[in-house]
């Protein structure tokens, strides 16, 4: 795909193309549309030129994947370049919150596979809620060293506490604002620990 993009940019002069794995994306000015006959629809002009180039070299593509608009669903997140925000869709956030609440009960025994599934789901959400990373510590600690996917693992108080903290923050967080991302400062910390990783001091 890299060579195809290079040709599109430097030979066909379709500027500002980017790629992530096998997805190509870019931007165009609002209202700058061009008709793409094979799909009988209008698309941003650069996207139309890229589709025509792909047709020229025989690269297959499908109409349902040709998304465009002022707000897009990308990797399961709502991306709004005009508002400069990345958020989790309301339904996806509610589903995750519900799954965590079901999981986070002291004394429950879930399989390693279920722990991994929930951990992966939460980890995915951290793309939008990066400040909630601490919520996975106890969960990962419970999985450490275990390899049998059907092995049952007790849900302890530490896991429950961290997961419920995550849900509490998830329910009131609005995602990432690309131009106004927040960091917790030292003055907001309840505890600050300095350490030295050097074995000789």
From TrEMBL:
Keyword Signal tagged: yes
Hey, what's the signal peptide range on this chain? 1-26
User: Which keywords does this Swiss-Prot/TrEMBL entry list?
Assistant: Signal
Source taxon at top rank:
Eukaryota
Keyword Oxidoreductase present in the record's keywords: the answer is: no
**Family annotation (SUPFAM superfamilies):** DNA/RNA polymerases
What InterPro entries does the record tag this protein with? DNA/RNA_pol_sf (IPR043502), Hepadnavirus_pol/RT (IPR052055)
Q: What is this protein called?
A: Uncharacterized protein
| The species this protein was found in | Lentinula lateritia
